[in-house]
Amino acid sequence: MLSPSPVLKKQSSKFKSLDIWKQLKDDGNDLSWYLAVSTNRMPAKYLISKSILCNITDLTAATEERLWEEHRNLTEIFLETWKK
Predict the structure, then answer these.
(1) pLDDT tens for each residue of 30-80
(2) How far apart, in whole angstroms, are the C-alpha atoms of residue 47 and residue 52?
(3) Which residues does 35 contact at the CB level (< 8 Å), separation at least 6?
(4) Pairwise CA distance, residues 12 & 2, whole Å
């Protein structure tokens, strides 16, 4: 993987140094995940979700019970992937 260009590093540094991040943390709002995503150190959750395949091929034919079962399975996979 290529390392970020000096220009991107400088822009990221400026973004991280905005007062809003300190204010939010001081107020008890730890948004470290969002800071990491916005500075391209972590993937957005929707990108993680997008990479996980659903095992139900015909959603219209699946029962509600089967859909919830698949939701539970995919949630577990998502959380494991997110933790990594």
Answers:
(1) 677 787 888 888 889 999 999 999 999 999 999 999 999 999 999 999 999
(2) 9
(3) 16, 21
(4) 16
Q: Are 81 and 59 in contact (CB under 8 A)?
A: no
Q: How many helices (H) and strands (E) does the chain have?
A: 5, 0
Give the pair of three-digit tokens for residue 70. Answer: 């698949």
Position 31, amino acid: L
Neighbours of 22 (CB within 10 A): 10
Measured CA to CA, the distance from residue 65 to residue 83 in angstroms comes to 27
Residue 18, by phi and psi: left (phi above 0), alpha (psi -120 to 50) or beta? beta
For residues 39 and 16, the answer to whether their CB atoms sit within 8 Å is yes
| 8-36 pLDDT per residue, tens | 555 567 777 878 777 777 777 767 778 78
